[in-house]
Structures are given as C-alpha cells and as structure tokens.
Amino acid sequence: MKRFAALLLAVCLLLTAAGCGGQTSAPAESRSSAAAPAVPQWGSLALTSSMQPQYATEFAVDYYEGGYKLLTVRDTDRYLVVPEGGALPQGLDADIVPLYQPLDSVYLAATAAMALFDVLDSLDAIKLSGTQANGWYIENAAKAMEAGDILFAGKYSQPDYELLTQTGCDLAIESTMIYHTPKVKEMLEQLGIPVFVEGSSYEQHPLGRTEWVRLYGAMLNKEEEADAFFTTQSAVIEQLKDYPNTEKTVGFFYVSSDGRAVVRTSDDYLARMIEIAGGRYVFDDLTKEDSNNATMTVTMESFYREAADADFLIYNSTIDELIETTDDLIAKSDLLADFKAVREGNVWCTGKYLYQATDIVGSLIVDLHNMLTGDTESMTFLYPIR
Asked: What are the start-end ranges of the H helices in the chain?
C-alpha cells in the first residue's frame, strides 16, 4: 500500500495540470474486496432522520438507510459518509464528496476541531497534524504528538504530501484558511484525499461552535457520546444566561502587521459571549465584509472612534503575540495610549489556548463576567495587562 501511495504521489506531481482523476474513490482495500457490496442508487436511498442542531446554523446532518450520512457545511459543501464496507451510491451528485469509514488516518489542520475529537475520545483517528507539538494547548494532543502517535505533516499551506500518502491519509480537515491556498486543496484532492472545510468560526452563538462535536460524532459513529457531552455544555450556558447586564462596554481586537485593528463583527459568537457575560460589545452594527471572513480589519482611526471610550479592551493574542504591559500594547499604535481602558488599567489579553478550547466555551463567559465585575482571582483564558 505504501509503495502504491508513493507511486501515486509521483504520478500526481508530474501530471498536476492534467489531474489524477475525478471523484475521490474508495480505499484500495475495499475496492479489492472479494465480496463486493450491492451498489445502491443515490436517488432511491430513503432519508430516515435529520439531526436538529440547537444552536449551530452552519452544518446539517441527514441520515439515510444503510448507514449513509449526508453532512452539509455552510449550505455549500456536502459530504457523504459511506459506512465501512458500503459502496458509493450510483448517481451521486457530482459536488458531494464521499468519506469512507472508518476515518482513522485524519490530517487535522483546523485547530478548532482537536478539542472536540478529544472529548469524543477519538484522538486515535488523527494520525497527522498541521500544528507542531509545541503549538497545541490541548494536553492530550500535545502528549500524542510527543509520543509519536500523531505526526506533524506540515501546516495547512505547506503539507507534506509524501507523508500524507505514505500514512494512508483518508481525510484532511481544514479551516477556511485553505481557501487562501486553493492549489493545496486541489493537490490533496488529486491525491485522493477528501478535504473537509470546517466552518465553526462562523457560528453566531458560542454554543454553536461546541455543537460541532455532534457533526464529528456523526462522522465517527459516536453520536451518543457527542450528544451527552453537548447536553452537559448546554446546561453550563443555561446557568450563565441570567447574568445581569453591567452596561460596561468591551472592545476585542488585535493589531495587524500593517498597523490596522482586526476586530470581531457584531453578529460573531464572541460578541454574543460578551453580551451573555453582562457586557456590551463596542461594535453594534459591524457586519462581515464577505462570507469567508469571520473578522473585519479597520484603520486605527476608525477603531479609535468606536472603542476609545470602551470600559474594557481585550487584546486577542491567539492571532498575535502575547503582551504583558501597556507599553507592549502602545508600541503597536500610539493612539492606544489615549483609550479610556488603557488609562484606567482595564486591558486584558487572551491566552493562546482560547481558539483551541471549543469544548469549554462557558469558561470564557465566566472570565468575561468576572472581568466586568472585578472578581478576577480565578481566570481560565484572560489575564490582565499591567
């Protein structure tokens, strides 16, 4: 199998312009099976049920007879989960990407999904990572990489194609950043590796991101475990929703390399978290520039107009470097020295763990509430800038 994969890689690298085939095919083991399964007709497969997400709006799961599952992401991308030993239905729509179970050799380049695989006790399905061991803040993920159970296979924009083929990679889970490197996505697909583009960052409710555990549960045949975990997290949020509003305003941002402020939009899940925690997000009418961007970039002058009088500022170090002092912050823009939150010492910074912790969003809401009310002895994601 490894020799076959290496040969396939060599052929694809030489014939990229012509492509290496069309729709992703079944693994060689299932194709060579002596007892070939009956081939169903896609149009005749009966829909048996559909998942009903409570908070998520960016995915759907439909269940069909025979163990087939149709995953829809952001109303544009569709993936058919084919049960182990099952055959690809004839007449399948050309835009539907087949995913053959068991999915046990995943290349994970979308960091937001790792925590959800972890709570499903499914890290063994991930064999390859787009993040180095020292880049993971999820303890079990870091340990698995240090033990060699998960290998670094290059970041999303520069994957190690040879390693992917040698390890029999059966799925690449990518963030929407892959759209900025379309040739990488094309090459993965030419190598017979289906690309699943994760879109949880577009959820407007904080629990929407966590509810993606149910989609991965469907992908891995762990629906019961996913539902049980999500029910527990939903209960946490229900307990937090009655926080009284303090009417204090909060700005959440970082400064890009070109000196502009990058902020979350008004309908983003982080803005919703601030509201649940008892605050007001400073941008109340900021909408996305395009459907593939969960943030907006504004000039520092525009940011000043909206956030100069904010009661609190939170610097997003998950994207940028950690900062420790107000001098570190002001070094990014002199304008920041005139912000009310900077003058009054109400600037906080996120830890690097924030975006990887899709499983415990309630803890960030508690942090935000404690920040707003001054009860800051125990924090999970936020720390003060001195």
From this structure: 2-14, 28-31, 114-119, 139-146, 161-166, 182-190, 206-210, 212-219, 223-240, 269-277, 300-307, 326-330, 340-343, 361-373
Question: DSSP 3-state assignment of 222?
Answer: coil
Residue 384: cis peptide before it, omega within 30 degrees of 0? no
Provide the domain limits for residue 160: 42-234
Q: Which residues contact 296 (CB under 8 A, 6 or more apart)?
A: 262, 263, 264, 265, 286, 288, 289
Task: Specify the CATH number for the domain of residue 363.
Answer: 3.40.50.1980
pLDDT confidence band for 294 (50 / 70 / 90): low
Least confident of 13-27, 85-99, 136-150, 310-324: 13-27
Residue among 378, 376, 323, 386 at smallest CA distance from 350: 323
**Chain mean pLDDT for the chain:** 88
Residue 11 lies in a domain: no
The number of beta carbons lying within 10 Å of the beta carbon of residue 312 is 23
